[in-house]
Amino acid sequence: MATRVTDTKDMIKGMAPVRDPETWHFCTTADRDMAERGRPHALAVFAEEEGTSLILPDEVARDLGFAVEMPMSRITLSVHSALDGVGLTAAVATALAAALIPCNVVAAYHHDHVFVPEELAEGAMTILRDVARGAG
Question: What CATH number does the domain containing 63 carry?
Answer without folding.
Answer: 3.30.2130.10
